[in-house]
Amino acid sequence: MSPPASRASSRTALPDSAAAETPAPARGRSRAAQQRAHDTRAALLTTARRLFGTDGFHATGTTDIVAEAKVTRGALYHHFRNKEELFEIVHRAVTLEISEEAQAATAAMTGHTLQRAMATLRVYLDLLATRRDIQRILLIDGPVVLGWERWRALRSEFAYAGWVQTLSLLAEQGRIVAVPIEPMAQIILAAVDEAALAVAHADDPAKTLEDMARALTLLIGGLVDTRHAPGPA
Fold it and tell me: Compositional bias (Low complexity) spans (predicted)?
């Protein structure tokens, strides 16, 4: 499966859910004022998403964000406590973005649960490995800015939780050998992140991507209980 990065590379706006997290408006505010507040927050998030992805968290100042978003510094601190909170919301939105894109790319696929999971994993790896902005926000700056525990917690909301669900379903179907589900999900997620970083820094990214995809396939394929035929599920 070829990476859908070209389709996503022009995307700078965050998902509607991120921009829509505007605090409830005070009673009596006009609809126009509410819309301005929503638009201001959306502009800040979209601008921060682009600058964090291009220049990185530490090289991006709040002055850069407000200047490019064409809002005041006061507006930024009205919507966000600080730059770290803004980054966390962007990080969450990007995680959701690539998770949804990977799921959408394989939604129409037929086959049993493990086949669909592996196809989704490949798209997810392609996105992580080929999109520099995603790498910077999720894998490079994320652990440093948010701290290891908070970063892991955010990763758990999407990718980790998805693998726990998938492995649990496969175990219920008897398609994989008995394994501790949550530790295995952590191992798979860590392997995917490391594979993505290896591709990003490789002299031959295309070959490294294929090698890493094959290694992940062998890792996860090793869980299959060969006593059960891979019928549809």
Answer: 1-11, 23-35
Supply the range of the domain harboring residue 189. Answer: 88-221
* Mean pLDDT value of segment 65-88: 97
Take residue 102 and report the two structure tokens written for it. 């990977």
The length of the chain, given as a count of residues: 233
Token pair belonging to 110? 């037929």
Backbone angles phi, psi at 142, to 5 degrees: -50, -55
Residue 138 has which token pair?
């999720």
Q: Give the percent of the chain with pLDDT over 90.
A: 42
- The helix (run of H) or strand (run of E) holding residue 111 is none
Q: CA 52 to CA 60: how far, in whole Å?
A: 7
| Residue 47: count of CB within 10 angstroms of its CB | 23
- Shared domain check, 216 and 126: yes
The total of structural domains in the chain comes to: 2
Q: How far is CA 39 from CA 11, 24, 144, 221, in A?
A: 18, 14, 29, 47
- What six digits make up the tokens of 42? 């959306």
- Angle, vertex CA 115, rays to CA 180 and CA 129, nearest 5: 85
Domain assignment of residue 228, yes or no: no
At residue 224, the 3 state secondary structure works out as strand
28-54, pLDDT tens digit by residue? 568 888 999 999 999 999 999 999 999
Q: What is the pTM of this model?
A: 0.76
Q: How far is Cα 168 from Cα 176, in angstroms, rounded to an integer? A: 9
Half-sphere CA count of 192, side-chain side, radius 13 A: 23
Average pLDDT of the chain is: 84
224 pairs with which residues across the strands?
176
